Each structure stands twice: as structure tokens, then as C-alpha cells.
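Quick one: examine this chain and its C-alpha cells and tell me how the chain folds. Here goes:
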Amino acid sequence: MTSASSPGSANRLIIALDFGTTYSGIAYAFSNDKVGLPVSIDNWPDQWSSTYNTAGEEGRRPVKIPTLVYYDSSDSSKFSWGAKAGASASRVAAVKLLLDPSQPRPKYLPDLDAEGEISKLPKPPLEIAADFIGAIYKHAISEMEKKLSVEYIASYPKDYVMTVPAVWSDAAKNATLQAAELAGLNPVHLIKEPEAAALWTTKQLDIALLPDDAFVVCDAGGGTVDLISYQVEETLPHIRVKELVPGTGGLAGSLGLNQRFDDAVRRLVGKEQWRVLQSSKGYNYAAKYFDRDVKRNFMNREDDEYFVSFPMAKLRNDPDRGLESNCWAMARVPPLREDTKVIFDPIIQEVLSLIEGQVEGAKAKLGGKSPKYIFLVGGFGASLYLLQRVVEKYPDIQVLQPPEAWAAIAKGAALYKMSNRAIVTSSSATRHYGVSTWGLYDESRDRGQPTLPFKDDTIRTEIMQWYINIGDDLLRHRQIKFPFCRKLDEGYTSDGLRFTDHLYECENDPAPVHPLKVGTFRINCTITSDFSGAPRDKFVKKTNKCGQVYYELSYDLVLTLDGALMKLSLEMDGQSYGSVEAKYHI
């Protein structure tokens, strides 16, 4: 239990939110607590009466609530959330995925028509996310006040930490940040979900990690699976680790199992019966049984059999396929029937492929040596079948499902701001980041590229200048400077001192020399820089060969890495000047 020390400016209340695709949780801690661990909120509205009670272990209070929102059809300012959102077909689910619709979807899941989905929503995704975040935060505060008193909670300055997938785009991270701030949370820190899991796992397991040991964290949740590999730099006085391999992931979470279960039932009963069944209470009961029991306990044994009931459904019997008296006996009896295995295997295989990418990437960095551990965390990470398959694939690596794996992300996020935490010292870049610039034309490099004459009488062409490359070790709080140079006419005005630039990203390897119109090359964000208040003595007066006077303005766009977030500022001669705004592109 977290010990609540006396309020003071040096001690802060940390509130960490694991905003998930299917389930969300909150944990809290005090920043200077040297002894205690973060505490999960484990009392949620309707948690016991709802069939969404998925505590994971018998008798345990659930530490997460369904990420669901249901709006009043006549007033979108009124809504219910979590388990209270019920089973209505018009409830909003998986809104987190709509914050980054650019993420590729696995072949075994139906295509997502993001624009179509968004058009059906009562509000923009960001506002729905803010409604949900605000609701669970207010509930968490009310629960904390029952233990620590209203006055005590109010007396503490607060830090908020939110988790995001490792492969989340910067636009989606920014949208998550905006949703949290719209919900009234400020200041907000972002941390990658596998990093939060790594912090909690190293703290909770107290395993014998030694300097240079490496481990893979696989955070398998409802919507996304995220992985990062780490290497231990030192263990005393605190564990310090660095990212060894750039984070990877995809939409291979257990939500795909639910969708594949839907497809399996549709094939089992036929289109005609499915039209009636899919919106019935009987099917809702069956789907929740699959979600609550089958997903967690399936182990791929030949005698595995699960009895899925569809109460009052009046389905036609089909004994050959295991359907009798509105009950489907899901079997694992090869070679005749492999109902459960067929549902699981494509998604399990996708997770195994993601793990393989991390293991092989780590081995390449470690001179052929394998990581010491693979940690499986998250709701899907508790799957017994997933554990079995990973152990079979990697017999020489210790595969662990840490205690409280479902709460690991929220608790690890709280540890991120605590003084007794493990420390992640650096990240490994997942993309190239850079700017386009007008470089001097080089015939061997730039043949066929468009050119432009400049005021300094040079011929130039547009080339890419990459300042961050895939795999670069990015130290926390390190500043990376992107230099810019502007040429101003002699009669420039203050209105002419607002400049628009693009920060580009690319996942091609190697990074392209010139801007592309295809592939993963795209605008990360549009940056508006305002130097109208900058001192004029910073503008260098020059004259070209034709006697035309112009001014040259040189400055740096400064990118500072803080957790999962990039912060932007402007500098001239090493001093901060002007203001900068970034508009991220999905």
C-alpha cells in the first residue's frame, strides 16, 4: 500500500491512466514514497453485477473497466461509461484505435473504414476519448478520497501520466495528450506502454538482472500488441536500462479473437440465423463467456472443450459441428474439428512474429546472444495458450507472466514519476525524422530533380536532411536541433516573420535523399514559427552579386525527447526566441 507522506512542494500525487482499446485502468502513488508501490483503483461502477467482470483471478477485484461510452440519443452531453454502458449496439467501443486510423490492420481482421466509423459517432473521437478519460479520472479521485480524505487529496500538486502504444504515431500521441487536457488533466506526461510494463516488471519481480542482461517486453492488450527490448546498464542504486531495439507492434490484440469468434458463430449458424442471433441477449451472453473464460484458459489440449450457450436463441441443431440445444461444444479434436484453435492461431502467430522480430533484433545487437527473458504482460499477455506457444518457440529463454500483469501498465506508468523507480535512459528511434532543404545542385546526386535559382546566385534542389535515423539511441531529455535559414527581402515586415515548415518522417531504410510521394515518407507535423518579437540584430544583412540587399535569419527548431513525447521550441544563437506551434498529420 502506498504510504501517504505529508504534503509538500517536493512530494506530488501521481495519477497514471492506462487508456486501453478494450479496458482501461488507473493507479496512483506519491512521488517521494521510498517504500510503497502504486495502488490500482479496483472499485468501479457496476463491476460485480456486470458480466464484464474480468478480474482475471477468482476473488480478485477488477483493476480495469471496459473502454465503452454510451451517449443519450437526445443529448450527447449525457453519457454512461465502462460497464454501465451495457450491451447496447450503439455504444462507442475501441475509440482509441480511431485516434490513429493510419495503423495497418492484420489480414485476419475486417478492414476498418475509419471515415465511415467516425461519421457514425455522436462526437469526434478526441472528444469521446476526453469524455471517457474525464469520467474515469473523476471516479478515481472519489475512490482515493475515501482512503485519504478530500482535503488530503486536494492539498497535493498532481502529475498525470498516460500510456500510449510504442508504435503510435506522433499525431495519435498528440491527440491522446489533447484528450487528456480537454478532460482537465494537466500537466500530462506520456509513456510508452511496454516501457511502463518494463518499469513494473523489474520492480515487482525483483529478478536477478545483471548489467548487460537483455529482455523483451511484450505488452499484449485488447487492441494492440507492443514490444520493446531493453538492456540493463547498471543495477545500483537503481536499475537503469536502455532500449536495445526500436519498438514494434500492431493491431494483434485479443479484440481480434472476439471478432474471429463472431465470424466462427456466423459460419456455424448460417447467415439467416445470424441476422437474428447477433443482436440477441443470448449471443451477448455467449460472447462474454468466450471473452471471460475461453480467451484466458484455452491451452490447446486435445481434450479441451468449452460449452458456449446461446440462451433462448432457438438455433437449429447441428450435431456434426457440436451445436445442440442452443449450446456449442467448442472442441479441440484434430483432425475432425479444431474450433478453438482455428480462432486463436492466426492472432497467436502474429504475436509470435512480433516477438521474433524483437528477439532477432536483440541478438543482432548482442553479437548473437539471446535475451535472458521475455515478459508477457497485459490482458492478452495472461493467455495460457500464448505462454505455451512462446515457451515452445524459445526453450532457451525464460518466459514469464509477471504477477498482476493486467495492472502492470498503469502501475508502471505511476512508477515513471516515482523516485524509487527503475530508469529508462534512452530510446531507440523507430523512424527517420528530418526536414527538406534547398541544397546546392549536385549533378551526380540530383540528376532529374527540379532546380531553383536563389538570391545568392546559386542553383539548388530540394534534398532531405535527416537528423534522427531508425535505431539511433536517443537519450532522455536530449535536445536535437534542426537548423533553418530564411532569406528576407529588404522591406520585410513583422507579418513576414511567420514561417511554415514541415517536419518529415520515414520508415524506409535507408532514408531517401530526396522527398518521396510514396511509401512511408510523410509529413509528421506542420510547424509555424513566429519571430515577429525577435531582436532585429539577429538578422544578418547581406548583398548579392546584383547589388540587391536581403537579410538572413538563422535559427534552430529544437526537439526535446521526454518519455513518449517530442517537445518543440525555437532558438537563435542558443537562446530561446519566438514561438512555435505544431499541427500533426494523421
